[in-house]
C-alpha cells in the first residue's frame, strides 16, 4: 500500500497502488468494518468514535498508517485532515510500526529524579534503540519498542515503566534491564498490578473495546488500582466521609466580551 498522504489539505492523496480497492480489502476487510460499526454504535455522534477506532486500526496494522486514517475518515464521515490531527496529537497512536512490546519509561520530573532517566538510558543502550525505535523486527516475537513517557499517573511508585500499558512499579536499572531482556527472549514478566501482558496488537484491540483476544478475560476483570493509591478513598469510606452534595445549579461568572 502506498503511504501517500497530504497533511495540509482535507483531501487524501491516493497514489496508483493505494487506489487499488482489492489492496484495501486485504487489511480492513468486512470483519474489521463490522467491528468499526459496533464502535460507532456506542456513541450518539459517530465522530466521537474516533479514539477507539484508531486503536482498532493499531490492532490490525500495529500502528496508524495513512490507510488506517483513510479508513477512519470513511467510517466516521470525517476528513482525513481531521483524523490526522487527532492521530498525531495523542502519543498512544504510533506512526511507526510497533514492537510486540511497547516499553514506556516515565521520565517526567518525579520519576526522572528517582532514577527514571538512568533506567531509560540503560534500556536505550541495551536495546540499541532511541525514543520510538524498535529492537528487532516490529511485530515479531521479542521485538521491543522503547519510548520515554510523560507522567504515567503512578508517581507514588516512582520510578515506573509500563509494558503495553501495564505497570511495573518501583523500578531499578537492574530490574528494568531484566524485564526487557526477558521480553527480548519472548518471555512475559508479570506486571506489578493489573492484567497479564499481551502483545501490543492484542492490547490495542482491548483499548478499542473488544475483549475477545488472548488475555482479554483477565484484562476485563483485573484492577490496576494499588492499595497505596486508593488509601484515601478507602479511609473515607471506612469513616463515612462524603463530599458535600453538588448544588443543582451553579452560577458561572460572566464571559467577557471579545475585543
Ligand atoms: S512522574 Fe512518573 S508517574 Fe508521575
TrEMBL record:
Compositionally biased spans, kind Low complexity: 214-229
GO MF, any single term: NADH dehydrogenase activity
Cofactor binding: number and manner: Binds 1 [2Fe-2S] cluster.
Residue ranges with Polar residues bias: 1-11
Keywords: 2Fe-2S, Iron, Iron-sulfur, Metal-binding
Any matching Pfam family: 2Fe-2S_thioredx
Signal peptide limits: none
Protein residues bound to [2Fe-2S] cluster: 106, 111, 151, 155
Keyword hit for Iron-sulfur: yes
Cofactor(s) required for function per UniProt: [2Fe-2S] cluster
Region described as Disordered: spans on this chain: 1-25, 214-259
NCBIfam families: PRK07539.1-1
Similarity comment: Belongs to the complex I 24 kDa subunit family.
Protein name (database record): NADH-quinone oxidoreductase subunit E
UniProt organism field: Actinopolyspora biskrensis
